[in-house]
Each structure stands twice: as C-alpha cells, then as structure tokens.
Design goal:
One of its GO terms (molecular function) is glucan endo-1,3-beta-D-glucosidase activity. The protein is α/β, with parallel strands linked by helices. It contains 13 helices and 17 strands.
C-alpha cells in the first residue's frame, strides 16, 4: 500500500440486482505475533463463505491448510527473490516445483503474483520484473500448469502519471517502454489480468476537503461527469479503476482485464488520518462487496465483472507506519469480526449500510468538491428522464425553501421560454447550485439533477456561472 495523493473525483453506476456478479477474496497477511493457526484461519474463511485468498509468500503451513478447502489461492514470489528468478531460469523452475507443483491441485493455486508494488520498492527491483514473470511462466509451461495458473504483478496507483480525470489516465512515462508495454503484451499472450492495488481511503485522506465521503464510501451521491469521456461516476473506486483502464487503452491493450488485488479501509487511525473509523471501514467494505457481487463493471467497461481482494483478513500488530496500517483487518486475531459485513450474495440480502446519511430534496449531503471542467466551472441541469414528479418537486424546492432566483423563468421573463418543466427545473437547479458555491450534493434533487461542464443555453437564456 502507499499513501496516494490522487485527485480522483469521478465516480460508477451500479445495478443493485442479485445476478451473477464478480468475486470477492481476501488478503491473508501475517505480520503479527497473535494470529490463529493456518488451520483455524482456513476454517474461518470457509465459515464466512470466502472462496478466494491471496497470500504474500508460499508458507508451507498455510498452503497445506488450504489443501482440499476449495478456496482458490494467489501465492506470491516476494520482491527479494525477483533478481534470482530473473537471472536464473533454474531458480524459477526450482521455485515453482517447490512452492507450486508440490501443493497444486490439492491446494487450488490459480495465480502467482510476482513481487508486490515493485515500482515503489526502495531496493530497485523494477528492472528484474519482466524477466522474472517470463521465467516463472516458462517454469509453469514445463510442468503443464500454464493454462490453469496465471502470472501477473500487483501495481500501485502511483504507477500512473495522470489519474484525474479518469479519461486521461496514463502510465508513468519512464515505465511505459521498459515495463508496461512488455508486461501488458505478456498478460495478453498468457490470458492474464493486470493486478492493481486500489485505495480510495488514501486519496480521500489526503484530499478530504475536495472529495465527498459519500463518494468514497459508495454511498448515495449525485455523481460526477467526466468531461473527457462523457461518463457519469458515482464512486472513487470506479474512477480509479477506469484511470488504469484508460492508461491501458492508450497503449492499445483494451483486451487485458484487471484484478483488484488489494483494497480496503482502516477502522482506526491517528488523529491526522482523516476518515479512518470503524463506521467508514464498515461502509466502504460492505458497500464494495455489494457493488462487486451484484455484477457489472466500471463505466468504461460496464460488462466486465471484477475480482476484488479485500485488505486484509486480520489486524496485523507488527506492521510499521501509522496506526491505520495495523487496523485494516476484517477480523481481530481472536476471529471476531471488527464490524459486521457479508462476503456472499446470500449475506447481502439482509445487509444495509445503516449509517448512510439522510438526503434532503436538494443535496444528499453537502461536502465541497473541486469542479470538473477545464476552466474550473460547472453547472447543474435537470434530467428529463427523472420524471415529472421528481422534476416538479425539485423545482418547487429550489424556488421555495432553497432560495433560488426563479424570477427569470416567470412568464414574460428572459428564461420563460422554452416553457417546459425540464427547462425551468434546469434553470432553478442551477441557480440553487451556484448560490451554494457548487458544493457537491447541491445538484442532487432526488436524482433529478446532474452536473455538466459546458454552459447550458436555452434560446436566449444563458445560465449564470455564480452569484
């Protein structure tokens, strides 16, 4: 993980039906001295319906405990072994024989993560990554496991040079030729996905003054339109994923999929770690599980279900860094849940985010956000698809309690024509939105309003830019 100061203020339209969706897994880290035995951990995962796990090594006790469990496993070749795996095919062969062949298929190993966030490794292991991936893959070919066990490498979002808005996502220029082009070509040829670690928490923590908490937690919010691709986003998570997809697309690798190998939210943090709380962690992870299991991809790739690994299974008391680093766990070491969220579609049927804030007719929660257009200006307009009842209710609120300037839409005034409910509601919504300083949530109106980055105009009526 990495403290990311990324302005990703764009958000995904989730269809909340219980159709076949994506898949949820967990990361089983063990930087602690008080965790239960591997056998107990496997029983815990089975009791919770968790059928995928990612580990950070190839510990014998862990892989033996997983044998016969039916839980699919991602194992890891640690960063410190990359140079050996890259330089010596014989080392890669021996490593695969000892750490994969010895356990598979009783232990259902489905992928090997080569290193972890190699680009931020202070030991400068990036130059070994591609050769190590290829040599490990060749070892799998030797043992005829290459069709069932895939090879990839988890990357942090700091590998992006541009990430906001999502439509301009691009990889760091110094990594494109030596790393990303050969890596993506390798993933394409082997049918593997790009592993990505995504943490909306760090983006929110660093930019809480401009990022809506509801937006970061998958809660109800008015969403934002990416002016570059015209897509409306409703979560920071999806905006971050689409920034990676855009970066891949820029290199002509639209056919390579993404697996989210880490994401999570801490239940506790230091005083300066904004947003780190049990309530927010429960909301993020619970709503994320719902978002993944109910199906659908991101706005940019709406038909691609995601596989997502939550970080992490346990609070790990020996991790270094701020308090949050030791409090990403879903479970305490005594196997009790830190907070109650489901991990299966069945569990979702009775799950709700109890602390999602109430929403007034206009707002849905007021938190300041930076504007989305290139010149720093946005407007609020009404959606004709919202229906007459919502449009009328929004118009009544804006012109009444909301205090919008609705004189220009009175009969005989400059903005009366066109005399339609949608046009009048748009003018009133925008007046309210501008008076409120374009605060996020002030273009909600029960879902009838949305934000645009080009100034609306109806005939001779131009919408104001501010008051």
């Amino acid at each position: 993980m990495e403290l990311l100061k990324i302005y990703l203020l764009l958000p995904i339209l989730c269809i909340f039906s219980f159709a076949d969706g994506g898949s949820i897994g967990v990361n089983y880290g063990r930087i602690a001295n008080n965790l239960p035995s591997a056998v107990k951990v496997v029983e815990l995962m089975k009791s919770q319906g968790i059928n995928r796990v990612k580990v950070y090594d190839t510990d014998r006790a862990v892989l033996k405990a997983l044998s016969g469990s039916g839980i699919k496993v991602v194992v890891n070749l640690p960063n410190e072994l990359l140079s050996n795996a890259a330089r010596r095919p014989s080392f890669a062969n021996a490593w695969v024989l000892r750490n994969v062949v010895a356990y598979h298929p009783s232990t259902t190993i489905e992928a090997i993560a080569i290193g972890n966030e190699v680009f931020v490794d202070t030991h400068n292991t990036t130059r070994y990554l591609i050769a190590a991936m290829k040599n490990i893959h060749q070892a799998l070919v030797k043992y005829n496991l290459h069709d069932t066990i895939k090879v990839s490498s988890p990357v942090a979002l700091s590998a992006l040079q541009n990430s906001y808005p999502s439509s301009v996502g691009s990889f760091r220029s110094d990594l494109i030729e030596p790393v990303f082009k050969p890596m993506l070509e390798f993933l394409r040829q082997t049918g593997s996905s790009l592993m990505v670690n995504v943490y909306p928490f760090f983006a929110y923590e660093s930019n809480a003054d401009v990022i809506s908490l509801d937006y970061a937690l998958f809660r109800q919010n008015p969403g934002m339109v990416d002016a570059g691709n015209g897509l409306r986003y409703f979560s920071l998570f999806d905006a971050q994923i689409d920034a990676v997809f855009a970066a891949m697309s820029a290199l002509k690798y639209d056919d390579v999929k993404i697996t989210v190998t880490e994401t999570g939210w801490p239940s506790k943090g230091d005083s300066n770690e904004v947003g780190a709380s049990m309530e927010n962690a429960a909301a993020y992870n619970g709503n994320l599980v719902r978002r993944v299991l109910t199906g659908g991809g991101t706005p940019l790739r709406p038909h691609e279900d995601l596989t997502v690994y939550l970080f992490a299974l346990f609070n790990e008391n020996k991790k270094f860094g701020p308090t949050s680093e030791r409090n990403f766990g879903l479970f305490y070491p005594n196997e009790k849940k830190v907070y109650n969220i489901p991990f299966t579609a069945e569990g979702l049927k009775s799950y709700r985010d109890d602390h999602s804030p109430d929403h007034s007719p206009a707002t849905g929660g007021e938190q300041r956000v930076s504007t989305g257009s290139s010149n720093g200006q946005t407007w609020c307009v009404a959606s004709g698809q919202a229906g007459k009842d919502k449009l009328q209710a929004g118009l009544d609120y804006a012109c009444g309690e909301g205090g919008a300037d609705c004189h220009p839409i009175q009969p005989g005034s400059t903005c009366f024509d066109p005399n339609s409910l949608e046009a009048h509601a748009s003018y009133a919504f925008n007046s309210y939105y501008q008076k409120k300083g374009r605060v996020i949530g002030t273009c909600y109106f029960g879902g009838a309003g949305y934000i645009v980055s080009q100034q609306p105009k109806y005939g001779k009526c131009e919408f104001p830019t501010g008051y």
